Amino acid sequence: MATKRTTKAAATPEEKEVKEVKTASISASPKGKYYYACGKRKTSIAKVQMFKGSGEITINDRKVNEYLPVKTLVGTLKTPLTLTGTAKSFDIVVKVQGGGISSQAEAIRHGIAKALLIYDPLNKATLKKAGLLTRDSRIKERKKFGLKRARKGPQFSKR
After folding, report:
1. Percent of all residues in the chain with a pLDDT value above 70, rounded to a whole number
2. Alpha-carbon gap, residue 59 to 108, rounded angstroms
């Protein structure tokens, strides 16, 4: 019995072209010109838009204090703004998903820092020294078979 083999045709240059992921840019909307950046932490992804304004922060269509009830997380989120002295200069709109509130706050902080870098490249030294431009890539390690968690083994019984 003969089997029919099919070969895939060579991809055209258009198909080979890899689509570029939009991580930071300057765009326009009905509210005006804004600075866009995407921040990440663990499994959280925050899409940040910074508009010229009075310092309002909106997360998933809610006020920042309503979305993040813990004051320390709000402080964490505002760190790049206080370091650069732009806390009252921008209105920030954020869409965030995934993870818990702590990792979401750190993802928003990362996105705000990247957007501030687009706004003024001279902020790079300040933000980099504080470690705000580096994506914290630590994520939960997967569970291995034969173990209870990623590294915890079963209890050993001598008798």
Report:
1. 85
2. 9
